[in-house]
Amino acid sequence: MMVFHSIRTKLTLWYTALLGATLLGFGATAYLLTRSILLNNLDRSLRNEVAWVNEFIEPKARKVRLKRAALLELQELKRAATALSPVDSLDVATVETDQIWNQIYQHTLLSPRRQFIQILDRNGDLLYRSPSLEDETISFSYIPYRTINIVTIRDEQNRELRLASTQNDYVKIVVAYPLEDLNEALGDIFSNFGYMAPLALLVSIIGGWFLAHKSLKPVDTLTTTARAITAQNLSQRLPRQKADDELGRLTETINNMIARLQESFAQIQQFSADASHELRTPLTIMRGEVEVALRNKRLPKATRELLTSLHDELIRISSIVESLMTLVKSESGRLAFRFDNVELHRMVGEILEDAQILAGSKGIRVAAEQIVPVTLRGDAVRLRQLFLNLVENAVKYTPNEGAISISLHHENGNAVFLVSDTGIGIPKKEHKKIFDRFYRVRQDDLPDAGGSGLGLAIAHWIAQAHHGTIEVKSQPRKGSTFTVTLPLS
Ligand SMILES: Nc1ncnc2c1ncn2[C@@H]1O[C@H](COP(=O)(O)OP(=O)(O)OP(=O)(O)O)[C@@H](O)[C@H]1O
Ligand SMILES: [Mg+2]
After folding, report:
1. Residue 269 and residue 327: Cα distance in Å, rounded?
2. Counting ligands in written order, which one lies closest to the CA of residue 327?
3. Residues of the chain below pLDDT 50
4. In this structure, which ligand is nearest to the CA of 395?
5. Domains in the chain with CATH codes
């Protein structure tokens, strides 16, 4: 598909891919960084918490034997949370230990995090656990002595917990925090990223496409203009770019190249023009001299035959030189056309008579199939040359006793001139080339009809100058039909 062969598409895809990769990299880095910062913060507060509990409980534990109040503590502390009423129903030791738990509970209430605190005695029996734990026990074996250890574990409900622990001579302290909360916070921060990234990509596709389109537009213009430059209009140049950038330099380079081509073409044309011009005069003189010599009645037969043959060849060479001159002049635009109203039907009538004379000696029948009155603006001399070239070819390339038909009619606002013959025909692969200069079809099994290969090149040029076309349909050994189409207006 065309789209995939354009730099525009490739650039846009590159932009988008790069931006996509950047967004992804940026997103991932930001995510990981934020997570690590949050985790660090969490660790710090867990560490503080463990340290606080440790420092709070140790001096007290030295005085009172800590009792397992775990079963009571829940109801008691909940009551304490609502009424903040002192616990008064138990014995002194219980009251004292409960006050310790109560203070720890009060402390956790102040903490902004939903953390779990669990305190065990040295035997591993539960002394206290925060209400947030409900009846879950965090089981964790390695608790370091007098230093704080922080790890991530999974609890009974398979929740991820960040856990800090320590122990002193009296208790083991564990403070934990569910990572689920941290992940949720991260999710909140990054959920919008999921919507923003595709949006940014979309903007980049549209923007990239637009930018690429804008910067490559001059390339399209260059391509179109360069395509329109042919040998006939080498004086044309590509439009100069305003900026002295890559495109500006490319344009400059191409223009220089065209200029050099134009120069070479002009030299070749000049050479051909000079050569044919220089040949013309001596040829005319030679022809005149041979004609004078032939007037001598007393010439020996052999000499006369020699001079006659020489005369024929001279005529042939003159006609080649003449044709060459015409083509060279036509290319350099030095040959002016004289446009007038031309009655084509009259002209074709005369051509028909010429054809009959030409074909007479070969016993070829020439018939007019249809000639309708057509008048158009054109150069009568050139049009006559065009038709005559085709008719001459038809006669030349049709064996004795063949047939030629000529017709002229209108079709879709065009005058259409047709010449058909029952001649040797032209192989399909040669159809395009026969309009090239000096091109002649070689058919080994047929005698050479003689000719320079310029007739159809001239015919083609004349048709073009009248904004018309010339086409061939032909089958070897069956015959050929040449069609000239000339617009009427
Ligand atoms: N009617 C035709 N039938 C078969 N071949 C043809 C016909 N017209 C042209 N050709 C082929 O096309 C070639 C080119 O024709 P063109 O008229 O340009 O040159 P030419 O007839 O060989 O020479 P010139 O017309 O310059 O004297 C011919 O050499 C011939 O091989
Ligand atoms: Mg010819």
Report:
1. 10
2. 1
3. 70-71, 84-90
4. 1
5. 2-185 (no CATH), 246-331 (1.10.287.130), 340-487 (3.30.565.10)
Nearest ligand to the CA of 460 is 1
Cβ of 397 closer than 6 Å to ligand 1, yes or no, is yes
Answer whether 455 contacts ligand 1 (Cβ < 6 A). Answer: yes
Euclidean distance between CA atoms 165 and 161, whole angstroms: 12
For residue 440, give the ligand 1 atom closest to its CA. Answer: 29
User: Ligand 1 atom closest to Cα of 482?
Assistant: 1
Instruction: Report if pTM > 0.85.
Output: no
Ligand 1 in reach of 479 Cβ (< 6 A): no
Distance 487 CA to ligand 1 centre (A): 25
For residue 435, report the distance from its CA to the centre of ligand 1, in Å: 9
User: From the CB of 453, is ligand 1 less than 6 Å away?
Assistant: yes
| Token representation of residue 455 | 């007739």
